[in-house]
Write a structure and sequence with these properties.
Blueprint: H1 14-26, H2 33-46, E1 50-53, H3 56-66, E2 74-78, H4 84-92, E3 95-99, H5 110-117, E4 122-126, E5 144-148, E6 156-157, E7 160-161, E8 168-172, E9 185-189, H6 191-200, H7 219-249, E10 269-272, H8 277-286, H9 299-302, H10 311-319, E11 320-323, H11 331-346
Parallel strand pairs: 2-3, 2-4, 4-5, 5-8
Antiparallel strand pairs: 1-9, 6-7, 8-9, 10-11
């Protein structure tokens, strides 16, 4: 069934379409000058050097390798997160130490994070759903900190850009992300880290046996990311306006919503309702509206850890849904979403 209102939607203007046409007509679509231009643009915008790769997963994999993380190491990671984080730990033979998320699945439970970091060699901080996560930087003493900015490209508070506190950060440019192309990702960090990532992300053209990976971004993807970057400030503003409407419309309902004052790019709009998640998603789909899970199944469930240690993730798994919130969402569509939530919540 094709949804009338999808959960996510990426749009490209004529400038982007023409840029793609020019790359195709050039006959040079692999890694080249467009990727280099994108890396320069990312550094100018986000205050750190960047190396572009094929995905956020590739970015994390290379970052772990660059810091020598492997068997015998322990990394503290959030339970309420995309499972590709765990895939990367599996790639390098690292055992995860899980910690709980914060309210609405956003950020971290500080107490849970601190307990998990104790005895770990490093940790990953998620800027979940586009909300900038604050954390005690004293936890970084003697440990690796990687910021997961895959959902928070452009997030900023008090002049601080998400992804500039840890030793490294990762980005995703998957189709549904804040800066969406067909796929893509990036690593940011020190010049030494970026040089290492670039040296290992392209397995072609080398006359040695150093282990490298087919993780180089193509010029075709780079031009799409660049086009979306140009629209990012405008798109963040449009998303915020929709968030303001949702917060206002739901204020008289028994619904938990994010605070509109939260430092966020509003990649997602998570809500927790009294209605079970799966029931609400099914009801929405029957009406042609796509609601998201946030995270379908937290890692602690997949790894059979004690659910009692992850109360926030458990609550989110049962009752959190993510509403459509993207620049092209029309006011009439927003109204349909609000009406649906109001009907289902008041008449469960």
């Amino acid at each position: 069934m094709e949804l009338l209102i999808p959960h996510s939607r990426v749009e490209f203007d004529e400038v982007a379409i023409e840029a793609v046409r020019s790359v195709l007509q050039s006959g040079r679509v692999a890694t080249g000058e467009k990727v280099h231009r994108l890396e320069v643009e990312l550094e100018a915008r986000f205050q750190r050097p960047f190396a572009c790769v094929t995905s956020g997963t590739a970015a994390l994999h290379l970052t772990l390798l660059a810091f020598g993380i492997g068997p015998g190491f322990r990394m503290a990671v959030p339970s309420f997160i995309c499972p590709s984080i765990h895939y990367c730990l599996e790639y390098v033979g690292v055992k995860p130490v899980l910690y709980d998320c914060g309210r609405l699945g956003i950020g971290v439970s500080s107490e849970s994070l601190e307990a998990a970091v104790t005895g770990s060699d490093g940790f990953i901080i998620p800027h979940t759903f586009g909300f900038l996560t604050d954390f005690d930087q004293r936890l970084m003493k003697g440990r690796l900190c990687i910021e997961d900015c895959c959902q928070a490209t452009g997030a900023m508070v008090d002049g601080h850009v998400a992804g500039t506190r840890g030793q490294a950060s990762i980005q995703s440019f998957y189709a549904t992300k804040m800066v969406g192309s067909g796929d893509g990702g990036a690593v940011s960090g020190s010049p030494e880290l970026i040089e290492w990532v670039r040296s290992r992300s392209n397995h072609r053209g080398h006359d040695d046996l150093i282990c490298r990976y087919p993780y180089s971004m193509s010029d075709l993807h780079a031009i799409l990311v660049h086009a979306q970057l140009e629209q990012l400030p405008r798109n963040i503003d449009l998303r915020r306006r929709i968030a303001e409407r949702y917060v206002s419309e739901f204020s008289d309902l028994p619904i938990e919503t994010p605070a509109i004052t939260s430092p966020s790019v509003w990649y997602r709009f998570p809500i927790i309702t009294p209605v079970p998640r799966d029931k609400l998603i099914k009801e929405a789909r029957q009406r042609g509206i796509g609601f998201g899970f946030g995270v379908r199944t937290p890692l602690h469930r997949l790894l059979n850890w004690d659910p009692a240690c992850f109360p926030n993730a458990e609550k989110a798994m049962r009752n959190l849904v993510s509403l459509p919130i993207y620049p092209g969402l029309k006011e009439t569509q927003q109204e349909q979403i609000v009406d649906l939530i109001r009907q289902v919540v008041t008449h469960p």
